[in-house]
């Protein structure tokens, strides 16, 4: 087949058109041979089709979809040829056929789907919209043995087909994926994703556990440098890009299918060869996997897709230096946004009976002591999610501020709080850590105002942060775990009075100028009304109490006592829409982003499809055992 590809690549445009009849005849003969009783001939026919389609796409540079169809099979018989081809493919994928035949069949379909950089410009895919292979792919995911062997390619194919002209016309794969309610198939889909992300986490952990020198610099170099070797084109970029396909697959399932949410918290104990989902148990009854010795304790714990995804996020969120890594982190945040908007996903994450230990990785930084990564205590996944988001806030305050990622991060926090307020869920969380992180972020924006305000709208981010505080002030009594937590919130606000005063002054300054950010600056000044009311109400009371006691420096407990005694005389303004947010929508805001991500997945997939190397001896053994 490599000879065939090489010969086609030598041809110029005119020669290719002149050989059209010969190519049509070869294509037709290959299709006919797919029905042959000898499997080995079927394998060779599939291999030849892969080479033929791949090389014709390459020759036409993917720019002329109709030209590809004409040169391969001719317009007159294209409908008939493609129907026969796809019927055979469905038959091979669903029938009792050897593993190598199914694998080659999936490779052929991937060659078809990745023919053009932009999947929506691939005219051949119209035939896949008519002759739908959705059920065949789902059947592979249903069966544990087939899923272990072919699951990744099946999920990859589904993901690419879902993205074919997704906003232009009715795509049957979108419709079918959105209404799929087969629990076995959905679990299978989830387990393929879990397996890929777990492999990445294991790899990171293995390098992380290597002996490290005590110095901060060598720790940083060893811990992050091993995983993320260089900028674009390095090992790090390849490893991150390799996960784009499964992340897009996870995004599509979470975004499109409400039923998939139920699989997020299904306990999975063997990710390399996922067990039948019907055998998975709840989190209190993990099934030990005796066949694989646990490399790291955390992997011996009960796990599920959310646990694995949170751990994966904690690794990739450490690095936002290259475009590839920023895109990967953005995709993680969009998935988290969809999850945090879903009522059922939130109920799972806040369920106190569904607790997990999750290893979140922390970035070594100069301004904090380097502690070894520790698994969180067994806690609801909502607490782990908040830990993850707090860590992101604390570790990305830099001159080149990743503004969009911060807005997504704060948006996820806001959605989780809205759920808690709406359902009156009191999560037993160390809220002080979140408040401290948000205050630190506001202090950073203030300190770097001159530099940042020239490049980006820092007032929009500050407004989102202040509104989270307003949500706690106005509704905190309905979802904070105790009255003491509410007192601590007031203590933190009063303690940071100078910072909030400076923030108000900055916003006021920009709101009176005719700059680009006037509107957001004005909204920020208005949003600070209750925070300033609290500070202005309690500060004189604390000063008066100190004077009466003859003290100069109060303790935290003394201030909290003054706060408790003076709630009654505090007047706050009821602010509207604090618990409202704009529901996530892919179009129009993120459509271009996903087009670029899918293009990246198509390019990487095309480069990695290997249909030329076949172990003939192994195939013959398979066929003899089948017959």
Can you walk through the features of this model?
It is a single chain. By secondary structure, this protein is mostly helical. It is built from 31 helices and two strands. It has a two-stranded antiparallel ribbon. One of its GO terms (cellular component) is cytosol. Keywords: Membrane, Transmembrane, Transmembrane helix.
Count of DSSP helices?
31
Main sheet characteristics: 2 strands, antiparallel
Helix coverage percent: 55-70%
Q: Give the averaged pLDDT, no decimals.
A: 86
- Name the structural class: mainly alpha
Oligomer: single chain
Please give the number of β-strands.
Answer: 2
Q: Are there runs of 5+ residues with pLDDT below 50, and where? A: 211-216, 228-233, 269-297
Tell me the Rg in angstroms: 29 Å
Silhouette: elongated
Please indicate the percent range of residues in DSSP E strands (runs of 2 or more): under 5%
Cα distance, first to last residue?
Answer: 27 Å
Question: Topology, pairings included?
Answer:
Layout: H1 2-10, H2 13-18, H3 20-33, H4 39-60, H5 65-72, H6 75-94, H7 99-113, H8 125-130, H9 134-142, H10 144-162, H11 172-179, H12 183-208, H13 216-225, H14 235-242, H15 244-256, H16 297-300, H17 305-316, H18 323-341, H19 343-349, E1 355-356, E2 379-380, H20 381-395, H21 403-423, H22 431-447, H23 449-452, H24 458-479, H25 483-495, H26 497-511, H27 518-527, H28 529-549, H29 556-565, H30 591-608, H31 616-626
Helix pairs in contact: 1-4, 3-4, 4-5, 4-7, 6-9, 7-10, 9-10, 9-12, 10-12, 10-15, 12-15, 12-17, 15-18, 17-20, 18-21, 20-21, 20-22, 21-24, 22-24, 22-25, 24-25, 24-27, 25-29, 26-27
